[in-house]
TrEMBL record, chain A:
Enzyme Commission identifier(s): 6.3.5.-
PANTHER family, alphabetized: GLUTAMYL-TRNA(GLN) AMIDOTRANSFERASE SUBUNIT C, MITOCHONDRIAL
Origin species: Yoonia ponticola
HAMAP family, per database record: GatC
One biological process term in Gene Ontology: translation
Functional description taken from the UniProt entry: Allows the formation of correctly charged Asn-tRNA(Asn) or Gln-tRNA(Gln) through the transamidation of misacylated Asp-tRNA(Asn) or Glu-tRNA(Gln) in organisms which lack either or both of asparaginyl-tRNA or glutaminyl-tRNA synthetases. The reaction takes place in the presence of glutamine and ATP through an activated phospho-Asp-tRNA(Asn) or phospho-Glu-tRNA(Gln).
Catalytic reaction(s) noted: L-aspartyl-tRNA(Asn) + L-glutamine + ATP + H2O = L-asparaginyl-tRNA(Asn) + L-glutamate + ADP + phosphate + 2 H(+); L-glutamyl-tRNA(Gln) + L-glutamine + ATP + H2O = L-glutaminyl-tRNA(Gln) + L-glutamate + ADP + phosphate + H(+)
Protein name: Aspartyl/glutamyl-tRNA(Asn/Gln) amidotransferase subunit C
Domain of life: Bacteria
Length: 95, 492
């Protein structure tokens, strides 16, 4: 399957990665090569096969529905590029 | 006085208990070795103060006579593990400056056992790569050398290089598609990826969560057994961690494999595989046979589809896991232009912070998960994954105890050799290892011979789920028979 530059642009947008226009054709051709490789999977008969959800089947453990953590605002914010007054700061989202 | 750099974990443990050497002496000698090994670019963050503090505490514990096996053992820690207050960047620019406020479960367990952290080790960015060439720190270099500088493999390239060059007694690695076993094979070291769920993933930067497992990289099988045991165990903070008792793996190393059934999968004979890899595999088969094992030809019919399934599932999970790098909570944030909103912040931050291979995989993952393609790619890959696991289930149900394969399709290649190849060529490095991750099985790489240029070659053994002890014992028997003792000549 061949990926065109418009599809490459759309995927980059969905992935929230800025790709300059002049880099799109090369990216599209790399995608095409990788997807071509992946398309071998179409040769496999998967009729009636359940998609794997867990490689080592086990029941998820349960625990009491109680608070076990918290009160760590300083630590949570310690690595933020921009933290102010106890919050993460980001560019304006709502006008 | 013994040459400290030649010690193994087991040897150092015994020497420290006898009082022949202290952890402080051992640690200092490794710190000196690291200082002199800048050319290998294996250690990318140095933590000598932490190391000396831990070594002193370890010596006190050893003197008190109640020290675990890993007490006082100097280790390197892959940069993928979060270590409290110490840079943990997954070799990515996007985590520049990130110093976790917490300690991963694996490193917590190792440090609780008294181990010493010498520093953080180079790797491929977010563990995506097979040559350590996608690292923001630059390439790690293989201590084995033929003319040109060679890759130590990847993604745990720094770990492999450090162990092979005697810069530490052991190192943590992680393995999503072969990232412990391929670098071990390229450097003449031993590395085991345990059963999925054996080792907690908590605090290990996530790549593909359904495939990622941590494991030890060491100088020999005994050391892998000792270090693996210290890393294993149930962790309530990882919901996929198995609540199972951890056996004494070292005690399993009897070397007796009489009557064990070893499977040789016909699908692992690849077209174009170098003759010396075929020969190594044959030789390894004979060694196990001579040690009393029964050799049986087996078939794993879906092997061919493992790599394509992996290159759907791993990028899909990566695209989801790496969504957290948004320039808000940690790491890098791009400088914004006037008028830029939050979307521009995400897009610029991620374009600047992620290297090309990581960007490629995130975008491939985004594509295969996008509306209209989810069933065709992602669900189909998960079905093929189920079939790959079934192949192994059938073989094990028929009485096979372990499977012997080559670890890699070639010896270590030159750094830069794959620069102009398309990404698939690099992916083919993992052709023998990736099936094991997809099936969640334990796998170990053991050095078993040298190629015509004197470079190490490894064999892989694949075990039954949760039976790492048995697997380590077969590996031990192979190690004894192969008698691999070669070391790289020091040039760095």
């Amino acid at each position: 399957m061949s990926i065109d530059t418009e599809t490459a642009r759309r995927v980059a947008k969905l992935a929230r990665i800025k790709v300059e226009d002049d880099a799109l054709p090369a990216l599209a051709s790399e995608f095409s090569a990788i997807l071509g490789f992946i398309e071998q999977l179409n040769e496999v008969d998967v009729e009636g096969v359940e998609p794997m959800t867990s490689v080592t089947p086990q029941r998820l453990k349960r625990r009491e529905d109680v608070v076990t953590d918290g009160d760590q605002q300083d630590k949570v914010l310690a690595n933020a590029p921009d933290a102010r007054e106890g919050f993460f700061a980001v560019p304006k989202v709502v006008e | 006085m013994t040459d400290l750099s030649k010690l193994t974990i087991a040897g150092a443990r015994d020497a420290m208990r006898k009082g022949d050497v202290s952890s402080v002496e051992l640690t200092q000698s490794y710190l000196n070795a690291i200082e002199g090994a800048g050319a290998l670019n294996a250690f990318v963050h140095h933590t000598p103060e932490i190391a000396m503090d831990q070594a002193k505490a370890a010596d006190a514990r050893i003197q008190a006579g109640d020290a675990p096996d890993m007490c006082g053992i100097p280790l390197g820690i892959k940069d993928l593990f979060c270590t409290k207050g110490v840079a943990s960047q997954a070799a990515s620019g996007i985590l520049e400056g990130f110093k976790p406020e917490y300690e991963s479960t694996v490193t917590t367990q190792l440090f609780d056992a008294g181990s010493v952290m010498l520093g953080k080790l180079n790797m491929d960015e977010f563990a995506m790569g097979s040559s350590n060439e996608t690292s923001v720190y630059g390439n790690a270099v293989n201590p084995w050398k033929v003319d040109a500088e060679l890759t130590p493999g990847g993604s745990s390239g720094g770990s492999a290089a450090a162990v092979a060059a005697d810069l530490c007694l052991g190192a943590t690695g992680t393995d999503t598609g072969g990232s412990i076993r391929q670098p071990a094979a390229f450097t003449g070291t031993t590395g085991i990826k345990p059963t999925y769920g054996r080792v907690s993933r908590w605090g290990v930067v996530a790549f593909a969560s359904s495939l990622d497992q941590a494991g030890p990289m060491t100088k020999d099988v005994r050391d892998s057994a000792i270090m693996l045991e210290a890393m294993c165990g149930h962790d309530p903070k990882d919901s996929t961690s198995a609540d199972m008792a951890v056996p004494n793996f070292e005690a399993a190393l009897t070397g007796d494999i009489k009557g064990k059934v070893i499977g040789i999968p016909k699908e692992y004979h690849m077209d174009g595989m170098p003759e010396e890899i075929e020969k190594l595999w044959k030789d390894g088969t004979s060694m196990l046979k001579d040690a009393g094992a029964e050799i049986r030809d087996i078939s794993l019919p879906h092997t061919k589809y493992a790599l394509p399934a992996y290159y759907v599932i791993a990028p899909a999970e990566a695209s989801s896991n790496l969504a957290r790098y948004d320039g808000v909570r940690f790491g890098h944030r791009a400088k914004l232009d006037a008028g830029d909103g939050i979307t521009e912040m995400y897009e610029k931050t991620r374009a600047e912070g992620f290297g090309p291979e990581v960007q490629r995989r995130v975008m491939v993952g985004t594509y295969v998960l996008s509306a209209g393609f989810y069933d065709a790619y992602y669900n189909r890959a998960r079905k093929v994954r189920a079939l790959i696991k079934q192949d192994f289930d059938k073989v094990y149900a028929s009485g096979v105890d372990a499977i012997l394969t080559p670890a890699t399709p070639s010896p270590a290649f030159a750094l830069g050799a794959m620069k102009n190849a398309d990404p698939i060529q690099m992916y083919l490095n993992d052709v023998f290892t990736v099936t094991v991750n997809l099936a969640g099985l334990p796998g170990i790489a053991v050095p078993a011979g040298l190629d015509k240029n004197g470079l190490p070659l490894g064999l892989q053994l694949i075990g039954r789920p949760w039976e790492e002890g048995d697997l380590l014992n077969v590996a031990y028997a192979l190690e004894q028979a192969a008698g691999f003792v070669a070391k790289p000549a020091k040039w760095w």
